[in-house]
């Protein structure tokens, strides 16, 4: 995906940061970067639209409601009505494909998938791959709809010169990384952070992280950084994702490779900003981009100390991040810019 302005072309809910809550270290809140910071696709609920047309917005809202209620034909009818007005949203077009598939209209579903890819392949791919970003697809990711998606995506990959074997490997790594993490919030909410269930979940996550790191290191040795030109925009961030889930020594080891990849457009600069901040905060230094949020002893959330804070929003803009004031709201607190 692209810049935050580009995200305004798509219907999506308000961005809800996914929190990395490991019991193995001090409780620090950070976005896990399942997807690009500040431009993720979220589940149900609308916040931004492809067009401000009232009839379009109303139809899309109805379609989402029907999708939630598993009423495929009314859902499909509502999307058809919306698309007669405008069809600029890859996310809504993928959701229309889901409604068509649920109504056993496979050819129409395939058509919508193709249209979504033509609108924005990275959004279409994000919607299908990401368990947390688009949970409405979770029940069909292992169904015959998978074959429809795979066929359309493979055609697009061939056009882009994507390495299919490498992409398949990275997608498998991505899924194993995200599946257990998708349970973190629910386990914490139901059992709490001091529970056996919480400890077992994170033990499993750390085991998966170790396995995935070995795989990613082997791929980097073979291909260099496996970025956008080799595997596409979405999975071009997977190697970075696994590295940023690793110990800080590993993060520092691969920092130069990741920086080159970001500079060359092979991975998102927003993700690079998060990793730089993470390393700096771990080492007791001030962060540069304000991506790291901590929980104070009084239960209040706040940013870890920021270097040259008066210019932080300028630095954030340079890497595609929005203002810190808006970022803070995603965590439920207010940020007041420094006057120094």
TrEMBL record:
InterPro entries: DUF6624, TPR-like_helical_dom_sf. Pfam families: DUF6624. It comes from the Bacteria. This is Uncharacterized protein. It comes from Spirosoma pollinicola.
